[in-house]
Amino acid sequence: MQNERLRVAMNAGGWTCASLAEKTEVDPKSVERWVNLGRTPRRATAFAAAELLREDVYALWPALRQARAVRALSPDLVALYDRRADLPVSLFVDLFAQAREHIDVLVYAAVFLHEAYPALNDLLRQRAAEGCAVRIAIGDPEDPCVRQRGEEEKFGHGIESRCRLALMHYRPLVGTAGIELRTHRTTLYNSLYRADDEVLVNAHAWGANAYAAPVWHLRRTGDGGMFDTYAESFGAVWATATPVQEG
After folding, report:
1. Contact partners, residue 204, CB within 8 Å, separation at least 6
2. DSSP assignment of 65-98
3. What pLDDT sits at residue 70?
4. What is the pLDDT of residues 112-170, one digit of tens each?
5. Nearest to 76 by CA among 184, 244, 198, 235
6. Across the chain, what does the average pLDDT equal?
7. Which is nearest to 216 in space by CA: 40, 102, 70?
8. Could you read off the pLDDT of 196-227 as tens digits, one per residue?
9. Which residues are CB-neighbours of 34 under 8 A, at least 6 positions away?
10. Which of 8, 89, 144, 220 has the highest CB neighbour count under 10 A?
11. How far is 87 from 155, CA to CA, in rounded Å?
12. Cα–Cα distance list, 59 to 13, 21, 66, 72, 203 (Å)
């Protein structure tokens, strides 16, 4: 859905997507998404853009009011979603595209990313080429924890096959400077999708597929918060994971 109020404000002030992007220090494609797809910018970026446009930030992006209420629960909490299926894949893609230092992915498979966005590997290569450290940890299809997860979700060997498929998707990245791919053998309580100081946490519920489980969007606001809890969790799993070799 287009953000018509934003479009009118930009036209009135003589702004283009490129000029507004330059002033707010984001990619012009991000501004195009604000206008044409109705996306909501990061909070700090939204306030900066609203000031430039001389508009009420909450009039331009009403979703920020809800986000403000959510943040009252925890400073790190940006948004809550009932199910991962409620999130457009573009949210994950935009998060990765904005990363400058870190991209960390901890999943069993999450093949929905490549299925919905086939250019994911190209995006990860681009981020790595610009100095972003990319770490991908997927489930070892031979691990008993993976098989147990399939049984609990009544998905049988589907989880194992999807882990193998995920490995096929990511394997072309092995050997790319700045990108590491590993397999892990852990009980996965949450799938994590981190980009710099933001992370999407897909909380797993026993007996439910990941797409039906909640997601919370966190942004690091200080030491020892919710974001750090999950960042440390990723680090602990990564330390035990096995690097995937070329070939």
Report:
1. 188, 189, 190, 191, 210, 213
2. HHHHHHHTT-TTEEEEES-GGGS-HHHHHHHHHT
3. 57
4. 999 999 999 999 999 999 999 999 999 998 888 878 877 777 665 577 888 899 999 99
5. 198
6. 87
7. 70
8. 999 999 998 887 788 888 998 898 888 888 89
9. 3, 6, 40, 41, 49
10. 220
11. 22
12. 16, 20, 13, 20, 32
- The full length of the chain comes to 247
Residue 68, classified by CB atoms within 10 Å of its CB into exposed (0-12), middle (13-18) or buried (19+), is exposed
Q: What are phi and psi of 163, to 5 degrees?
A: -65, -40
Strands (E), 20-162: 77-81, 102-106, 133-139
β-partners of residue 191 are 202
Strands 77-81 and 215-219: antiparallel
Token digits for 95? 């998060």
- Please say whether the beta carbons of 27 and 16 come within 8 A: no
Give the span between the Cα atoms of 183 and 109, in whole angstroms. Answer: 10
- How many C-alpha atoms does 161 have within 13 Å on its Cβ side? 4
Return all residues near 197 (Cβ < 8 A) that are at least 6 apart. 219, 220, 227
Q: Would you call 86 helix, strand, or coil by DSSP?
A: helix
Q: Which two tokens stand for residue 187?
A: 């009980």
Task: Please state, in angstroms and rounded to a whole number, the distance separating the CA atoms of residues 227 and 229.
Answer: 5
